[in-house]
Write a sequence for this structure.
C-alpha cells in the first residue's frame, strides 16, 4: 500500500464521520450506499481494505440521525452499503443488541414505558435491528431514562418487520410512568455452534439479516483467544479446540473480521459481510467447566456450571482425580498444581458439590458427586486454582538433537511442517521456539525450499513472538514447499541481554537451568560458549553485567581449552567453596556480533548497494513489502557506524538475480537488524543507501625544510624558528575533485584557508616559521557528490616552534601576524616527487593507523590499499 492510500484509509476511518454523509438508492434515507461530500461533490465511500466495522457504521447511522446499525455490506465496487434502523434504537447497552429502547416520533427520540411494551413488541424490535430474538426486557436494565414522554402503547402481533408498522395507541395514564420504567431490551445471541450433540461444540454460525450462515473469519487474527471469546459468548466453558475446515464447494457464509472476537461482549457488535467461501470454523468448548483468570487456557480458577450458573469449587471438595478429569476435559495435559487462591480469590464458593471422580471420566459432570459437607466453612481463599500442564505442540525434527531441525507443529493430532502466512520470521521467533522447547539460545534459522509441495500448518508469525502466545495459535490447513529449520544451543543460553549474543550465562544440567559463578569461568570457557551460540569471540565477561541472578547453585567449574564446540564438552569439576558465590557473581557474557550487512559498489563502505550475509552468503537485499524509506536507511547507516542517512532509494537492475528478501521492519531499529531472518528469492531491485560518513578521514602531514616530511598525529611536531614549512592535506582517492580546508586554531584564535584538491591532495606553503604559527592544524576535505555536500576532518596536528627569534624574521612575521594568507604561497604546481613521497607516507600512516584504537575506518578493505600502492608506483 502506498502512502497516499494509507492516508486515504486513515481519513476514511477516523474522519469520514465528520464529513457530510448520505445514504442513496435505498428504501429509506436510513438505508443505502454511503456517500460523502468531497469538495462539493458526492462521492461513494469505498472499503477496499475491509476496514469498516460496526463502530464506523454505527457512527454513520448516528450522524445520519437514523437508529441502530442493522447491517454493513460492500458491493462489487467496494462501495459501503449500510442499513440503519429508521425509528428504533437501543442505547447505553453493552453491545448493539442490548440497551434502553428509544423510538423516534416527530423527529425526536424518547424512551418507552414498560407497561406499553410486551414480548411481541420486543420481537419486532430485535428483528428490526438485526439481532436474535429477545431474551430479556424490563425497566431500568440499562440505566434510568428521563421519564418516557409522548409514549405510545405498541400493539404488535410479533411478525411485523418494524415497530412503527405495528398498530399503537396513545399510552393511557402516561403520568404514572417513572424513569425507572423505561424499557431495557436484550436481544439474544447471534452466534451458535451446530452439528454436534452439545450446544457448546460444532460449526460456528452467525445470525444476520434473519439468516443463519456458517462464519468465515478473516483468518489472520483467528486464534485460541478468539475461540475462548466464542465459548464465553455462548456461556459455555473453556475453549478446548478449534479447527478450520474446508468444504467441498463454496457457499454463502458470513464473513467477519477477527476482531469481532477480541472479547465476548463485542461479538454482537460484529457486522458480517455476505460472501461465498469454502471455509468454515469448528469449535469445541467444554460444556460445564472452565478455568478463569489464569495465564493461559490451561490454568486458572476452576468454575463449574450447575443450574445455569458458574461457581467456584471448594478446595476440600476437589482432589487429584478430579483435577485429572478437568484437565482432560479442557484438552490440556495432566494437572501439575491445584490449590486454593492460586488465581485470585473468588467469592466464597457456594452450592459447591464434592466431586468423587475416579480419574478416567471424560467430563467432571460425569463423575459422581455429593453435596458438600460443612459448606459454610469454605472461605474465598479456598477456591480451587488449577494448573494443567500444557502439551508441547511444536518440535524440531531431522537432526540428532531435539534442539535442532525442521519445525513441526501438531494440530488435530497430526504433526506437519510449519509455514508462516505473513512471511515474517525472525530470530526473535527462533528464540521463542528455542525457549518453548526448553533448549538454549537461538543459534541460527533458515527456511528451505522443498522439492515438492506437501501439507503444512500455516501459522501467523506472531504465534512465536513469545512462548505463551504460540499455544494460542490456530494453524490453517494448506500446502507449501517451504520449511523452516532452527538450531538452538542445547545446554547453554544467555538471558536478559540486549541481543542474542549477550546476557547472563545459564547452563542446563540435570534438566534445569542455572547461572555460573564468576570464579568458575574463564576466557577459554567464554570462547567456547560464544562459539557454541554462533556469535563472535567474547569481548566482556564478568559478574552482574546482566542483572543479578539467584546465587548460582550446583555450579561446576569449567576447564575448557578453548577449542571445544560446546561448553558441556569441556571437562569440569565440582566448584570448590560453592557457598562463597554471591548472586552478584553470576557470569554475564558479551560475545561480539558479526556484521551481517554491508554497502557495496561505491568508493566508500558507507555508500552503495545494501547486501546481507545469510547462510554464509552475501547477497543484495530487497524488501518484500516494498516499503523503503529514510528511517530504514538510517538504521543501516547507524548499524554500519556511518553516521546518518543522506539518501535512500530503490534502483532497478538489468535482470533478476538471487537476493535476500527481508521485511522492511527489519530496519525499525539497529538492534532488530541482526535479528532479521531473510528469505531466499530473486529480484531485479537494489536498495541504494548513502550515509553521512561517506568520506574516509583525510591525513595531515608537516613538511619542513629542515626535517623533511612527517605526520603530526601522535605527538606534537616541532619546528625550528625561521624554517620554511608546508602542511599537506591528503585523502584516499574516493571521489574526484573537492577541496581541502586547513583550519588553524589556538586557544583564542581560529582561521582557515581553502585550496582545491589536486590529485586528492593540497599543499599549504608557509614561509619562515614564527611563534604565531604555533597551534593546532586540521585538514577538512569537502566534496559534492550524489547531489550532497560531504566533509571529513583529519586528526589534529599540533605545531610548536622553538629557538631564538631573529629580529629580521620577527619583523616580517609581525606584519602579518599568525596564519595570514600572505604567508601561504598558493599551490599552482605540485611537484610529482613531492606527491609521491606524500602518498608513500600516506600508505605508511594508514598502516600504523590500522592498529590505532582511535581509528574509525579500520575495516576498509585491502583493495583500497592495493590501488594506493599502484598509484605510488607511478
Ligand atoms: C436451580 O435454580 C432454581 C432457581 O434459581 C432453583 O429453584 C433450584 O432449586 C436450583 N436447583 C438446584 C439443583 O440447585
Ligand atoms: C458423560 O455423560 C454423558 C451424558 O451426560 C454421556 O453421554 C457420556 O457417555 C458420559 N461419558 C462418560 C465417559 O461417562
Ligand atoms: C538430578 O536431579 C535429581 C532430582 O532432581 C537428583 O536426585 C539428582 O541427584 C540430580 N543429579 C545431579 C547430577 O545433580
Ligand atoms: C561434544 O560432545 C558430543 C557428545 O556429547 C560429541 O558428539 C561431540 O563430538 C563432542 N565434540 C567435541 C568437539 O568434543
Ligand atoms: C591570544 O592570546 C595570547 C596570550 O595567551 C596573546 O599573546 C595573543 O595576542 C592573543 N592573540 C589574539 C589574536 O588575540
Ligand atoms: C573559515 O573562515 C571564514 C572566513 O574567512 C569563516 O567565515 C568561516 O567560519 C571559517 N570556517 C571555519 C570552519 O572556521
Ligand atoms: C596527478 O597524478 C598523476 C599520476 O598519478 C599525474 O600524471 C598527474 O600529472 C597529476 N596531476 C597533477 C596536477 O599533478
Amino acid at each position: 500500500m502506498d502512502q497516499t492510500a494509507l492516508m486515504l484509509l486513515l481519513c476514511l476511518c477516523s474522519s469520514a464521520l465528520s464529513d457530510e454523509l448520505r445514504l442513496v438508492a435505498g428504501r429509506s434515507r436510513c438505508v443505502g450506499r454511503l456517500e460523502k461530500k468531497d469538495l462539493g461533490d458526492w462521492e461513494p465511500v469505498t472499503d477496499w481494505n475491509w476496514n469498516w466495522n460496526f463502530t464506523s457504521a454505527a457512527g454513520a447511522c448516528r450522524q445520519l440521525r437514523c437508529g441502530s446499525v442493522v447491517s454493513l455490506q460492500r458491493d462489487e465496487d467496494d462501495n459501503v452499503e449500510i442499513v440503519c434502523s429508521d425509528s428504533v434504537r437501543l442505547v447505553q447497552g453493552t453491545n448493539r443488541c442490548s440497551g434502553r429502547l428509544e423510538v423516534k416520533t416527530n423527529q425526536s427520540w424518547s424512551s418507552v414505558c414498560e407497561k406499553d411494551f410486551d414480548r411481541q413488541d420486543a420481537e419486532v424490535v430485535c428483528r428490526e435491528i438485526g439481532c436474535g430474538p429477545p431474551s430479556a426486557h424490563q425497566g431500568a436494565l440499562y440505566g434510568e431514562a428521563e421519564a418516557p414522554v409522548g409514549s405510545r402503547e405498541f400493539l404488535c402481533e410479533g411478525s411485523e418487520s418494524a415497530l412503527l408498522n405495528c398498530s399503537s395507541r396513545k399510552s393511557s395514564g402516561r403520568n404514572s410512568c417513572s424513569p425507572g420504567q423505561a424499557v431495557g431490551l436484550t436481544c439474544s445471541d447471534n452466534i451458535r455452534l451446530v452439528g454436534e450433540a452439545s450446544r457448546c461444540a460444532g460449526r460456528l454460525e452467525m445470525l444476520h439479516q434473519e439468516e443463519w450462515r456458517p462464519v468465515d473469519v478473516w483468518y489472520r487474527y483467528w486464534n485460541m483467544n478468539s475461540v475462548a471469546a466464542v465459548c464465553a459468548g455462548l456461556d459455555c466453558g473453556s475453549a478446548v479446540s478449534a479447527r478450520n475446515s474446508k468444504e467441498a464447494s463454496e457457499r454463502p457464509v458470513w464473513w467477519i473480521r477477527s476482531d469481532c472476537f477480541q472479547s465476548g461482549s463485542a461479538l454482537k457488535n460484529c457486522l458480517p459481510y455476505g460472501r461465498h467461501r469454502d471455509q468454515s470454523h469448528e469449535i469445541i468448548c467444554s460444556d460445564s467447566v472452565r478455568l478463569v483468570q489464569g495465564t493461559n487456557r490451561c490454568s486458572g480458577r476452576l468454575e463449574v456450571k450447575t443450574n445455569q450458573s458458574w461457581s467456584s469449587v471448594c478446595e476440600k471438595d476437589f482432589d487429584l482425580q478430579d483435577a485429572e478429569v478437568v484437565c482432560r476435559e479442557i484438552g490440556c495435559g495432566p494437572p501439575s498444581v491445584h490449590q486454593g487462591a492460586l488465581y485470585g480469590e473468588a467469592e466464597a464458593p457456594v452450592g459447591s458439590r464434592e466431586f468423587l471422580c475416579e480419574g478416567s471420566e471424560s467430563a467432571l459432570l460425569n463423575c459422581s458427586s455429593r453435596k458438600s459437607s460443612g459448606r459454610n466453612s469454605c472461605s474465598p481463599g479456598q477456591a480451587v486454582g488449577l494448573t494443567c500442564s500444557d502439551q508441547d505442540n511444536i518440535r524440531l525434527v531431522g537432526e540428532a538433537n531435539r534442539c535442532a531441525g525442521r519445525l513441526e507443529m501438531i494440530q488435530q493430532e497430526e504433526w506437519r511442517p510449519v509455514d508462516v502466512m505473513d512471511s515474517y520470521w525472525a530470530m526473535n521467533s527462533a528464540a521463542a521456539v528455542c525457549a518453548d522447547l526448553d533448549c538454549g539460545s537461538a543459534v541460527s534459522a533458515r527456511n528451505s525450499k522443498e522439492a515438492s509441495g506437501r501439507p503444512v500448518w500455516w501459522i501467523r508469525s506472531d504465534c512465536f513472538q513469545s512462548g505463551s502466545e504460540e499455544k494460542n495459535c490456530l494453524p490453517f490447513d494448506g500446502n507449501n514447499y517451504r520449511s523452516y529449520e532452527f538450531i538452538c544451543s542445547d545446554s547453554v543460553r544467555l538471558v536478559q541481554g540486549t541481543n542474542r549474543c549477550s546476557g547472563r550465562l545459564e547452563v542446563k544440567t540435570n534438566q534445569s537451568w542455572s547461572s555460573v559463578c564468576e570464579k568458575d569461568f574463564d576466557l577459554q570457557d567464554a570462547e567456547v560458549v560464544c562459539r557454541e551460540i554462533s556469535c563472535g569471540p567474547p569481548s566482556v565477561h564478568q559478574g552482574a553485567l546482566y542483572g543479578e541472578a539467584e546465587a548460582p547453585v550446583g555450579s561446576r567449574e569449567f576447564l575448557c581449552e578453548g577449542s571445544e564446540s560446546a561448553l558441556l564438552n569441556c571437562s569440569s569439576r565440582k566448584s570448590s567453596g560453592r557457598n562463597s558465590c554471591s548472586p552478584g557473581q553470576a557470569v554475564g557474557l558479551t560475545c561480539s556480533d558479526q556484521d551481517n550487512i554491508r554497502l557495496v559498489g561505491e568508493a566508500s563502505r558507507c555508500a552503495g548497494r545494501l547486501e546481507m550475509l545469510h547462510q554464509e552468503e552475501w547477497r543484495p537485499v530487497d524488501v518484500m513489502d516494498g516499503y523503503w524509506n529514510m528511517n530504514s536507511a538510517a538504521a543501516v547507516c547507524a548499524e554500519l557506524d556511518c553516521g546518518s542517512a543522506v539518501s535512500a532509494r530503490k534502483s532497478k537492475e538489468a535482470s533478476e538475480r538471487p537476493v535476500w528478501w527481508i521485511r522492511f521492519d527489519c530496519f525499525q531499529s539497529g538492534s532488530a537488524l541482526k535479528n532479521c531472518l531473510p528469505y531466499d528469492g530473486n529480484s531485479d531491485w537494489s536498495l541504494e543507501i548513502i550515509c553521512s560518513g561517506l568520506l574516509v578521514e583525510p591525513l595531515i602531514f608537516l613538511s619542513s625544510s629542515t626535517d623533511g616530511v612527517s605526520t603530526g598525529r601522535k605527538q606534537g611536531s616541532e619546528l625550528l624558528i625561521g624554517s620554511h614549512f608546508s602542511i599537506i592535506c591528503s585523502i584516499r582517492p574516493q571521489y574526484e575533485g573537492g577541496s581541502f580546508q586547513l583550519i588553524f586554531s589556538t586557544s583564542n584564535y581560529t582561521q582557515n584557508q581553502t585550496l582545491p584538491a589536486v590529485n586528492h591532495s593540497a599543499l599549504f606553503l608557509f614561509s619562515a616559521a614564527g611563534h604565531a604559527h604555533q597551534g593546532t592544524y586540521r585538514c577538512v576535505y569537502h566534496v559534492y557528490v550524489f547531489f550532497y555536500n560531504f566533509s571529513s576532518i583529519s586528526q589534529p596536528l599540533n605545531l610548536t616552534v622553538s629557538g631564538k627569534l631573529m629580529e629580521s624574521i620577527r619583523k616580517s612575521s609581525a606584519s602579518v601576524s599568525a596564519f595570514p594568507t600572505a604567508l601561504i604561497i598558493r599551490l599552482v604546481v605540485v611537484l610529482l616527487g613531492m606527491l609521491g613521497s606524500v602518498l608513500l607516507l600516506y600508505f605508511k600512516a594508514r598502516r600504523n593507523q590500522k592498529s590505532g584504537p582511535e581509528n574509525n575506518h579500520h575495516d576498509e578493505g585491502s583493495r583500497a590499499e592495493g590501488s594506493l600502492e599502484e598509484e605510488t608506483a607511478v
About this structure: Residues 748-749 surround 2-acetamido-2-deoxy-beta-D-glucopyranose (ligand 5) (CB under 6 Å). Residues 26 and 32 are 4 Å apart (CA to CA). Residues 1-17, 807-874 have pLDDT under 50 and may be disordered. The chain has 13 helices and 52 strands.
